[in-house]
Structures are given as structure tokens and as C-alpha cells.
């Protein structure tokens, strides 16, 4: 059999670019500042645990690595219709494999609209590193007991998948409602030569943050990944001492600004 050769083809970028993918950066910056100046509540996602909370349209939610480098696995639903939920794959197609300020979290079919907009990212300067890796991943998935069993022969008990299930139980949601996550603070990429999915330890330090603004009323669930900063080899146990809680600040921008934001949507 002869070796096949392929003619070079040009790459086509951004095949999906809805008009709603572009945000008014200046307005969202003001909303973020105003929300941060009026924090309604502070929550803490326990180390290796999960938590869910409601976020009303127009409110901000800042997730902070307050105690050390820590990856978080995030799920989002429309609070009034749980069938509408975050769609990781389409978000990746619309933006890229790693999200930052002004990118949006898009919802599942048939809704396909922004559920939230990223208003702050203290790590945005990380960009794309020498290995092609970036931060805040929508390429990968979440740690779960089933994959763990495939790798080790044993069911993992503490995983993001389980944490998310437990966190949303009070809203009567179940395992089937858990979906592909937005991996905040996670450093990942696709190897240029092998196309393997690669993971690096998160470069987040104490005090780094990413912030979302709810485009509609939301239920948000977050797991502080039991893999910590995800620097340990997959399937290997991670010491509890290298897993940290994540702090969450829910902010309410002032009324005039919120009205301006509502008008901007129509
Ligand atoms: Zn995890």
C-alpha cells in the first residue's frame, strides 16, 4: 500500500459567531465594579466538596482561590427551566477552548443563548503558554467515579461529579442533570504533535478570581475539585492538604446600572 499524502488546506476560524457573542466591555466593567462594591453574600465551597446557589439576573458572582491553587468545576442551569443548561461544546465552538473576560457561557438547544458573561478574570494575562495551554477550560470534563473505576478498578468516592449531584439535590435535580463543566482555574491544552489532552497544575495563587454576571436567573453549582490544582497524575491520590476551598461573592450592581444593562439587551 502506498503512503497517502494530503494537500495543505487553509484553516477556517470562528465558524460560529452569533451577534450576541460580542459584549459591551465598558458596561460590563461598570456592572462588575458596582457588584463588587455591593456584595450581598459570601459563600465558601468546602475543599473537596460542592455547593450550589441561586444567582438572579444581573447579579455578579466572583469565584476566588482565596486559600491556594484550586480548580473548580462549574454547572449552570436556568433557574426556571432546568432543561436549559450550560453547553460546554457550543461555548467552545463560539469562543475557544479557554474562556476569559467578555466570553459567554451558552445554553443547550433549543435555547442557545448566553446564560452568563465573564466580567473579570485576574489570570487573563496567562493567555496561551509555550505548550499551547490556557486557563479556564471548556475542553475537558469533570472527575467522576466511572472513569476512575476504568483507570483504577475502584469507584472513586469523592469526585466533582458526586459533589455536583449532592449540591443540587435541594432543587430536586439528579445525576442526569449534571452536565459538562466549565473548569475554572484549570490549565489545559491539546498537544501540538499528538493531540493528547494535557493538563498542567493551575497557576492560580491566593486571591485570583474569575467573575460571572447572570444573564438570566440561574442555579449555579460549583465543586472544589478533589484533584486540587490538577497537577497530580490522573488516577493518583491527591493529599487533602493540597486541596483548598473556593470563596464565592454574590454582588448586586446598583439599580440605575442594572436598568441600563436591561435596556442594552433589547
Ligand atoms: Zn474534579
UniProtKB/TrEMBL annotation:
InterPro entries: DUF1989 (IPR018959). Residues 44-219 form the DUF1989 domain. It comes from the Eukaryota. This is DUF1989 domain-containing protein. It comes from Capitella teleta (Polychaete worm). The lineage of its organism: Eukaryota, Metazoa, Spiralia, Lophotrochozoa, Annelida.
Amino acid at each position: 500500500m502506498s503512503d497517502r499524502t494530503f494537500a495543505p488546506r487553509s484553516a477556517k476560524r470562528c465558524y460560529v459567531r452569533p451577534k450576541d457573542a460580542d459584549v459591551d466591555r465598558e458596561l460590563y466593567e461598570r456592572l462588575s465594579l458596582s457588584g463588587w462594591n455591593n456584595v450581598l453574600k459570601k459563600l465558601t465551597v468546602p475543599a473537596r466538596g460542592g455547593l450550589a446557589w441561586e444567582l438572579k439576573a444581573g447579579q455578579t458572582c466572583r469565584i476566588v482561590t482565596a486559600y491556594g491553587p484550586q480548580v473548580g468545576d462549574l454547572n449552570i442551569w436556568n433557574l426556571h427551566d432546568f432543561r436549559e443548561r450550560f453547553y460546554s461544546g457550543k461555548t467552545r465552538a463560539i469562543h475557544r477552548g479557554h474562556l476569559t473576560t467578555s466570553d459567554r457561557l451558552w445554553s443547550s438547544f433549543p435555547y442557545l443563548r448566553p446564560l452568563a458573561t465573564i466580567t473579570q478574570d485576574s489570570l487573563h494575562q496567562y493567555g496561551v503558554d509555550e505548550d499551547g495551554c490556557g486557563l479556564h477550560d471548556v475542553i475537558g470534563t469533570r472527575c467522576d467515579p466511572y472513569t476512575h473505576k476504568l483507570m483504577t478498578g475502584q469507584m472513586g468516592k469523592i469526585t466533582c461529579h458526586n459533589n455536583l449531584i449532592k449540591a443540587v439535590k435541594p432543587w430536586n435535580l439528579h445525576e442526569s442533570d449534571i452536565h459538562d463543566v466549565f473548569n475554572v482555574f484549570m490549565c489545559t491544552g491539546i498537544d501540538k504533535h499528538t493531540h493528547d489532552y494535557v493538563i498542567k497544575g493551575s497557576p492560580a495563587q491566593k486571591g485570583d478570581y474569575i467573575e460571572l454576571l447572570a444573564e438570566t436567573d440561574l442555579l449555579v453549582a460549583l465543586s472544589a475539585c478533589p484533584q486540587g490544582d490538577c497537577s497530580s497524575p490522573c488516577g493518583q491520590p491527591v493529599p487533602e492538604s493540597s486541596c483548598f476551598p473556593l470563596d464565592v461573592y454574590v454582588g448586586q450592581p446598583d439599580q440605575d446600572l442594572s436598568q441600563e444593562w436591561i435596556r442594552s439587551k433589547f
